[in-house]
Amino acid sequence: MPEFSIVTIVKGRRKQLANLLQSVQASTLLPYDVQVVCMDNADEIMPPSGLNVSIHVIDDSHKLPLAAARNAGIKATKTGNIIFIDVDCIVSPTLFENMLAQLQPQNIITAYPLYLPFVPETGNYAALKHEAVSHPAREHLPVGEPVEHLQFWSLIFGIQKQTFENIGGFDESFLGYGAEDTDFAMMFNQQGIKLFFVQNYVLHQYHDKHDPPLNYFDSIIENAMRYRQKWNILPMQRWLKAFQKMGLIKMDQADNITIVQKPTDEQLRGSISQNPY
Q: Which residues form the Glycosyltransferase 2-like prokaryotic type domain (predicted)?
């Protein structure tokens, strides 16, 4: 198997990071290096012994520079094969070998998420898998054949470093939450790069969430308009239609968005979801 690198980004969520790194350490293949990019600071990060972990602090004025943090982590990697993992994940022991076996210059490899309804005390995949549930929108996506590029999600993906550079990385003009993954999918699709699933899993550790994500209202609107300017179509339609139904925005037939009002505290409280996914 070729050498490979792992990248993850983190803000807060130190327990989730510790669980992720524990699961990486229990894998059948160990990475050559692990790049952890902090969007806050490096406090309380204690990598386990046996993993070659480098910690970076991204200096960015935006509170959630997701695209820039991902790019910085991938740029810092020491090998030509990259597996990006969201910090909320706990990986299957065989995930890396299965992904690397399929990784080629003209493809991107991903895996299936299973969702835990809590943050566990450890990253022991085998002990936790039976407590996780699948995502109904993803569990039936096929293995071993190309799937639609818009199924791309940065929760877990493998890519060759040269392929990532040829695509141009994540567009750092998308600031904060929303649309940066979809934009990346549009860019790799333009180059004929295909997205494949392998029959393997990550466990997603629970965190509080809003549905629709009113807590990211400003960046979702800004990124949606940025995406429309770039691709001539609005992304995140489900969320935008929910915002419109709540009276927060108006959308016309030309996909112009007008903000009517910002979410109220009551609306924010009412949007908290108990769903694990």
A: 59-187
**Domain ranges, ordered by start, for the chain:** 4-204, 214-271
Please tell me what DSSP assigns to residue 212. S
Tokens, residue 116: 């835990």
Counting residues of the chain whose pLDDT is more than 70, the rounded percentage is 100
Distances (CA, A) of 212 to 54, 242, 267: 35, 7, 10
The CATH H-level (homologous superfamily) assignment of domain 4-204 is Spore Coat Polysaccharide Biosynthesis Protein SpsA; Chain A (3.90.550.10)
Q: Tokens representing 257?
A: 């968005």
How many CB atoms are located within 10 Å of the residue 164 CB?
23
Separation CA 95–CA 99 (nearest Å): 6
Per-residue b or e along 189-210, where b marks 16 or more CB atoms closer than 10 Å to that residue's CB: beeebebbbbebbbbbbbeeeb
Residues 74 and 7: beta-carbon distance below 8 Å = yes
Query: Which of the two residues, 85 and 138, has the higher pLDDT score?
Result: 85
Residue 62 pLDDT level (bands cut at 50, 70, 90)? confident
Number of neighbouring beta carbons within 10 Å of residue 3: 14
In tens, the pLDDT along 138-177 reads: 889 999 999 999 999 999 999 999 999 999 999 999 999 9
Amino acid at 241: K
Find the mean pLDDT for residues 215-221. Answer: 97
5: enclosing H helix or E strand: strand 5-10
